[in-house]
Design goal:
Its cofactor is [4Fe-4S] cluster. Pathway: Carbohydrate metabolism; Entner-Doudoroff pathway. The chain has two domains: 355 residues, no CATH class; 176 residues, 3-Layer(bba) Sandwich (Glucose Oxidase, domain 1), CATH 3.50.30.80. It has 23 helices and 14 strands. Helix 8 packs across helix 21 and helix 10 packs across helix 13. It is globular. The relative contact order is 0.11.
C-alpha cells in the first residue's frame, strides 16, 4: 500500500535524523535476541530465587525452562480510578497463563500519581518526573531476566509514557499494553465546567462544587474526558501495542475480561519460541511513531504528548521534534470531537466508532503506514476492528464500516471537522512553543494584547479574585518549566481565564509550563522553550509589553523595540521554596539534568 507522499517524506527525514542512535539500538536488540531467553542462562541459585514464591506447578514449569514466562509490570493503586480495576488483573493473568501451559509473575510495580488529585498542589511538581521514575521502575522489574514476554498495566498521564520508555529499553521482549477502560458517563463535562466557572466567580460554594466533581468522577475507570490518559490509550492502538479496539471497553465487563485473556494468549503467541515473534523494538519503529502523531492530530489529543512521544521515541533511538508534529498536523484532518474539543466523552466516542473507525478512515486516505508490526499481527488494517462477544461469549473482532455511528462525534475523512489536526508550533523572539487550536474557535487563533506577568498560577488566581484582570491581556506565567519546578500542569488557570473570555475580554496564556490534556477554550502558547530559569526570553517580558500569539502564521512575539529587547536582562526568581516539601527535595538531581520540553523533558540521559 502506498503512503501519502508528505507522510513518506516526514518519515524518511526522521529515519535519516535518527540513524546515529537507532542503528546501535537495533544492534543491541539483535544481540539480545540471538542470545535467547536469559532465564536458561541464570545460575541455579538465581533461578531458584526467581520462582521461590511460585506454586508447585509454576515452579516445575520454570525449572525446566521450556515454557514461556510473562512478566507483569503493574501500575495498580487505589489513587487512580483508572487503575483501580487492575487490582485483580495479576491473578486473572496468572490463571490464563496457567491454562495455556505457561507462567506469569508480577515482575514489579511502578508508582502512578493522579494528576487530578495533585492539580494546583505541590505534588503536581513531581508529576512529570514521575514518568522517568516509572521508566526506571519498569527497567528494574524486567531486569530479573526471567521473562519471555511482558504485559504492562497502565493508563494515565505519565504512566503509559513511562512504561513505554522502560519497556522499549528491553527491545527484545514482546510487550503488550492492557487497558482497563473508562468509567461510566457521569454528569457532562460541560455541566462540570459550568460549576467550576461559577465556583471561580464565587457564585456557588464548596459543597456544590464537590458534589458536581463527585458526579463527574464517580467510579473505577478512566476519567471520561479526552485528556492525556485517554490520548495515551488511543496511541497504544495506533502504535500497535493494544489489541484492536481495546482502549474504551468498560471495566469489569465480560468483554473487558475476554480482551485481557486474549492479550495473554497473544503475548504467548509472539514470544521468541514462535514464528510470530514480535519484540517491542520492532513494533516501535519510526513508522509507528509517525502513525501515533497522525492519531494525535486526527483525534485532537493532549498536548502533553508533544513531550512524551519525543521521550518515548528517544528510548528507541528515534529523534522526533515539534516540526514533525506540526507538519503532520498540516495534512491530517480532524476526525473526532471529544471533550475538550467537543461535548462528547470517550464512551460516546467509542460508541460512535472510536479509534478503529478513525484508523480505517486514515488508512483509506493513505495517511498511516499500513505495513507496520503490531502485537496483534495484522498491520494497521488489523487495528481497524471492534472487539465483540458472540452468543456463546467468545471474543471476535469485526471490521468497522465506512459509516460513522454519530457524525457529531466522529466523521469520515471526506467530511472532517477541520482540514488540519490543530497542533501548531509558534516561534519568534520569545522562543518556541506549541498551541492546540482544535479546541478554540477560529476568532481566537490570533490574540494580541498587553502582557500581565506572573510567576505562578496562584498569582493569577489572586489577581482574578481581586478584580485586577480587566480589559484585554495575555497572562504570562513563567518559571514553570522542567528545571524550575518540574513543569507542573497549570490546569487551574482555565476557569478564571474562561470567565474573563466569556465576559468578552481577549485573553490568552503564554507559559513555559504545561496545560492539562483536558484544557481547551482559552488560547495557550505552552511549553515555551528556552524556559525562564534558563534565561529564556519569556523571562524578559514586562507588564504592558504587547504580545502576539498568532496560531495562523505560527508567531510568538513580544513587540518591543529590538534595541531595548537586546539590552533587557532576563528576570530571575528564588525558587527554593518550590524545591522542598511533599517529596520535592528528592528530585533535585532531576531538576538539574532535565532537558527542554522539545527534547522530551527527560532526566534519564536518553
Amino acid at each position: 500500500m502506498t503512503i501519502n507522499s508528505r507522510i513518506g517524506e516526514i518519515t524518511q527525514r526522521i529515519v535519516e535524523r535518527s540513524k546515529a542512535t537507532r542503528s546501535p539500538y537495533l544492534e543491541r536488540m539483535q544481540n539480545l535476541i540471538q542470545k535467547g531467553p536469559a532465564r536458561k542462562r541464570l545460575g541455579c541459585a538465581n533461578l531458584a530465587h526467581g520462582f521461590a514464591g511460585c506454586g508447585t506447578t509454576d515452579k516445575e514449569r520454570l525449572a525446566t525452562g521450556d515454557v514461556p514466562n510473562i512478566g507483569i509490570v503493574t501500575a495498580y493503586n487505589d489513587m487512580l480510578s483508572a487503575h483501580k480495576p487492575y487490582e485483580h488483573y495479576p491473578e486473572l493473568i496468572r490463571e490464563e497463563a496457567r491454562r495455556l501451559g505457561a507462567v506469569a509473575e508480577v515482575a514489579g510495580g511502578v508508582p502512578a500519581m493522579c494528576d487530578g488529585v495533585t492539580q494546583g498542589e505541590a505534588g503536581m511538581e513531581l508529576s512529570l518526573f514521575s514518568r522517568d521514575v516509572i521508566a526506571m521502575g519498569t527497567g528494574i522489574a524486567l531486569s530479573h531476566q526471567m521473562f519471555d514476554a511482558a504485559v504492562a498495566l497502565g493508563i494515565c498521564d505519565k504512566i503509559v509514557p513511562g512504561l513505554v520508555i522502560g519497556a522499549v529499553t528491553f527491545s527484545h521482549l514482546p510487550t503488550i499494553f492492557i487497558p482497563s477502560g473508562p468509567m461510566p458517563t457521569g454528569i457532562s463535562n460541560g455541566e462540570k465546567n459550568k460549576v467550576r466557572e461559577e465556583f471561580a466567580q464565587g457564585k456557588v460554594g464548596r459543597d456544590e462544587m464537590l458534589a458536581a466533581e463527585g458526579k463527574a468522577y464517580h467510579s473505577p475507570g478512566t476519567c471520561t474526558f479526552y485528556g492525556t490518559a485517554n490520548t495515551n490509550q488511543m496511541l497504544m492502538e495506533f502504535m500497535g501495542l493494544h489489541l484492536p479496539g481495546a482502549s474504551f471497553v468498560s471495566p469489569d465487563s465480560l468483554l473487558r475480561e475476554a480482551l485481557t485473556r486474549a492479550a495473554i494468549q497473544r503475548a504467548l503467541q509472539i514470544t521468541g519460541k514462535s514464528e510470530t515473534f514480535t519484540p517491542i523494538g520492532e513494533v516501535l519503529d519510526e513508522r509507528a511513531f509517525v502513525n501515533g502523531i497522525v492519531g494525535l492530530n486526527a483525534t485532537g489529543g493532549s498536548t502533553n504528548l508533544t513531550i512524551h512521544l519525543i521521550a518515548m521515541a528517544r528510548a528507541a533511538g528515534i529523534i522526533l521534534n515539534w516540526d514533525d508534529f506540526e507538519d503532520i498536523a498540516d495534512i491530517t484532518p480532524l476526525l473526532a470531537r471529544a471533550y475538550p474539543n467537543g461535548i462528547a466523552d470517550v464512551n460516546q466516542f467509542h460508541a460512535a466508532g472510536g479509534v478503529p473507525y478513525i484508523i480505517k478512515q486514515l488508512l483509506d486516505e493513505k495517511l498511516l503506514h499500513a505495513d507496520v508490526k503490531t502485537v496483534w499481527g495484522q498491520g494497521m488494517a488489523g487495528q481497524a476492528q471492534m472487539p465483540k462477544l458472540n452468543e456463546t461469549g467468545e471474543l471476535y473482532f469485526e471490521p468497522v464500516s465506512d459509516t460513522s455511528n454519530d457524525e457529531t462525534v466522529v466523521r469520515p475523512s471526506a467530511n472532517p471537522f477541520q482540514p488540519t489536526g490543530g497542533l501548531k508550533v509558534l516561534a519568534g523572539n520569545l522562543g518556541r512553543s506549541v498551541i492546540k487550536t482544535s479546541a478554540i474557535s477560529e476568532d481566537k487563533h490570533i490574540i494580541e494584547a498587553p502582557a500581565r506577568v506572573f510567576n505562578s498560577q496562584e498569582e493569577v488566581q489572586q489577581a482574578f479574585k481581586a478584580g485586577e484582570l480587566k480589559d484585554d491581556f495575555i497572562a504570562v506565567v513563567r518559571f514553570q518549566g522542567p528545571k524550575a519546578n518540574g513543569m507542573p500542569e497549570l490546569h487551574k488557570l482555565i476557569p478564571p481565564l474562561s470567565v474573563l473570555q466569556n465576559l468578552g475580554q481577549k485573553v490568552a496564556l503564554v507559559t513555559d509550563g504545561r496545560m492539562s490534556g483536558a484544557s481547551g477554550k482559552v488560547p495557550a502558547a505552552i511549553h515555551v522553550t528556552p524556559e525562564a530559569v534558563d534565561g529564556g526570553a519569556i523571562a524578559k517580558i514586562k507588564d504592558g509589553d504587547i504580545i502576539r500569539v498568532d496560531a495562523v502564521s505560527g508567531k510568538l512575539e513580544c513587540h518591543v523595540d529590538a534595541t531595548e529587547w537586546a539590552k533587557r536582562q532576563p528576570a530571575t526568581r528564588d525558587l527554593s521554596a518550590y524545591h522542598s516539601g511533599i517529596g520535592r527535595e528528592l528530585f533535585s538531581t532531576f531538576r538539574h539534568v532535565v532537558g527542554s520540553a522539545e527534547d522530551g523533558a527527560c532526566a534519564l540521559g536518553i
